[in-house]
Amino acid sequence: MNRLRCFGPSDTLFVLSAFFIPLFFSIANAAFNLTTIPFNQGYLPLFGDGNLVRSPDGKGVRLLLDRFTGSGFISSNLYQHGFFSANIKLPSDYTAGICVAFYTSNGDVFEKSHDELDFEFLGNTEGKPWRFQTNLYGNGSTSRGREERYRLWFDPTKQFHRYSILWTAKNIIFYIDEVPIREVERKEEMGGDYPSKPMSLYATIWDASNWATSGGRYKVNYKYAPFVAEFKDLVLEGCPTDPIQQVPGAAGICVEKDAYLEAQDYAVVTLERRLAMRKFRQRFMYYSYCYDTLRYPLPPPECVIIQSERRRFKDTGRLKFGGSHRRQRSRISATLSAFDSNM
Ligand SMILES: *[C@@H]1O[C@H](CO)[C@@H](O)[C@H](O)[C@H]1NC(C)=O
Ligand SMILES: *[C@@H]1O[C@H](CO)[C@@H](O)[C@H](O)[C@H]1NC(C)=O
Questions:
Q1: Residue pLDDT, tens place only, 69-105
Q2: Which residues cross the membrane (predicted)?
Q3: Which ligand 2 atom is nearest residue 193's CA?
Q4: Were both Cys, which of 51, 120, 139, 224 would link to 6 (CB 3.0–4.6 Å)?
């Protein structure tokens, strides 16, 4: 089950908080001009087939988790670089212990030297928000976690939102709708840690009771099953590649698609988008490995240290504000401390 992704054993309580919708995110951009494909045209069931329900129009699927199994799908090809995207709606109400993951990986092909890019969503007890994490691994660099954890500025169970991963030879961008929430630019010093081999796209829902919510304190409660994650308006741009048959020099076959990807609107973090990204990160990011100087006394080479971000974190990587005094706080500071849930 470890291939299904989702983040680590540590966890913490979340503070109830009102959702608010910062206007700056809505002005950030017009929607991307994307070409969507029907499910059958790009994807296959991965596991729990009976719990993968295609929509009548063929454009999407519902992934169910019940007491017998979770479910998942995988792209029918591996891609050398790409833009992987879907409109996703997460299960609502009591979702403690549930993990929904949307990620690229080649762990099935390269067991010891795999690459991976993750969106991982963790459910919560009723009334408490979903949280999520992004992560990346390159060439089997699993001992170097590059995780960041965040809350969302909306309720992901109410409406569909677009989650996207762009991967080129130059950079990786995680998007929510049109807001870039994380960019990793390729640095020479990263070496093999920058994902470089073809990857498949995966989407899964599964029972992560052992640790998902407050370190396993809250298990999946099947009284509320089935839990349903919906995926639609799927986008799969990239250069389909067979990593086994790849021969030296064959890399040239992806030149055109690479150029296409790099020329797309979503490949550029405009000034406006960069501002939206900064604002997102200052308000909703509650952990970044780049600021965890206990783990990494020297931030890894791809880290871009932003002083206004760094000031929010202790050397442990935990947020400075909040902690044990939460209960005595006024409503205003309770809202502030909602940003404080740590690892
Ligand atoms: C959107 O993309 C399609 C296909 O790539 C293209 O033909 C069309 O002109 C684009 N529309 C806009 C508004 O850019
Ligand atoms: C990836 O890891 C393998 C060993 O697992 C090593 O032989 C290879 O040189 C690495 N590739 C890069 C680009 O670092």
A1: 999 999 999 999 999 999 999 999 999 999 999 999 9
A2: none
A3: 14
A4: 120
